[in-house]
Amino acid sequence: MRALCIMLLGCCGAAQAAPPNFESIFPAGGQVGTQIEVKVAGKGLENGSPQAWSSDPKLTIVTGKKPNLFQLGISADAAPGPRLMRFFTSEGATAPRIIEVGQFEELIETEPNDTLVTAKANPAKMNVTLNGVLEKAGDVDTHAFPAKKGQRIILELHGYGIGSAMDPAMRLLNEQGVEIASGHDTHNLDPRIEHTAAADGTLFLQVFAFSHPPAADVAFKGSVHHVYRLTLTDEPKKMPRLNEPKTITVPTVLTGSIAKAREEDVFSFTAKKGDDLQITVRAQALRSPLDAILRIEDTDGKTLQQADDGDKENLDPALRWKAPKDGEFKFVIADRSHQGSADHLYEFSVKPFVPSLTGTLDTHAYRLEAGKIVEVRLTLKVSGTLTSKVQARAVNLPAGVTAEPVDVPMKGGEVKLKLKAEVDAAASQAPFAVEIGASEVPDSIPRVLASYVIPFAEPRGDLLIMSDSHPWLTVVEKK
Hints:
Elements: H1 2-9, E1 24-26, E2 29-31, E3 35-41, E4 51-54, E5 59-63, E6 69-74, E7 81-89, E8 92-93, E9 97-102, E10 105-108, H2 116-120, E11 128-133, E12 141-147, E13 152-158, E14 166-173, E15 179-183, E16 192-196, E17 201-211, E18 227-233, E19 246-247, E20 252-257, E21 264-271, E22 276-282, E23 292-298, E24 303-307, E25 318-322, E26 327-335, E27 345-352, E28 356-361, E29 365-369, E30 373-383, E31 390-395, E32 401-402, E33 406-408, E34 413-421, E35 428-431, E36 433-438, E37 448-449, E38 452-453, E39 467-468, E40 472-476
Parallel strand pairs: 2-9, 10-11, 19-21, 29-40
Antiparallel strand pairs: 1-3, 3-6, 4-7, 5-6, 7-8, 7-9, 11-18, 12-17, 13-16, 13-18, 14-15, 14-17, 20-27, 21-26, 22-25, 22-27, 23-24, 23-26, 28-30, 30-34, 31-33, 31-36, 32-34, 35-40, 36-37, 38-39
């Protein structure tokens, strides 16, 4: 990938005065196995030949016939889900933005669609993803689709979650224009509606947005950057449902769902006194509506330990637990609001606790001039007690750039890596990585890659991708 980026850089036009800015892409994704035209907006991307990088080699994006138009290709074997994309010039790279690979057919909204009448003239169908944009202040997009009595319909919008600066909301109307359901915030600012149709007929979904970051007024907002993706489906998410009762051994990883209101999934297990376990539940990280809580109980049903939300970057429960005695115990997973459905999915993991650490980079990109040094600041957090010396190292650096490993404090803290470019280092553009691990062999803790937080103003809930371990490095030749 690095060699390809360096090769592409040689094809670039005149250098820009500053790194480009990537504000939006429309549509913000496509279906597996397709190639589509996308429009990119951002200062410094209008002229010349900016090049693109994707976090997944199964996604490619190349320049089109006109400025700001590109061809996005998605391999037939690409997995559905979010990806990151950057553009870069000789002066540096944009911050990454989120695009999605979808499993359903992708459609572009048909304008005009501001009223029920215009929307009904171009109805959508079920099991599609609609790509839209709220183009101006006060804009309300209306989408019509047929429904059958008893049909369970799920409407899920990604706007905030893909990095659009918006607080979107939805209203579901019947044929008479009466509101029958609504959706606003979920695990983030994006809305979701689950509805069972009461009769055959046409339903209408209205999409609109408020300011983000929040403003004093409550007027509907819009711009060419208010891009969203709306999935209409009657298909439940596919994950295996577990049978009860359940007995597990440690370690284990399994999947399940809280299929109905007030349901709890219970897992019985045997432990010995002093067993030190790490238990995690992933639900909102999987975009599940499940607001999971996790309990550990003894055989009498007494709660020994409980977890709800994690820290601000992890809304799913996780806990470390030591068995107080030999015996039988139970893990209990439930929804905090006692809700449930086939879509209330989760992944459950139990494993012996081992010391671990995480590293957070100070930014998403670095610029290094030949013959000079740039500092990469790294904040490390330690879980447990480290028993051997740990170092941070810069890896995958281009030719002519080096960095000495630095020792990591045993209790965590901030360290600085110094990237040094030789005087004759060639210009290049590519991602690199910062690896953290034991400096001795064999490793006493798993090696991890440091990550940066995806840039976004005043986060209120998680984006589809919260962090990335591929910081960008621009090397500029000595002038």
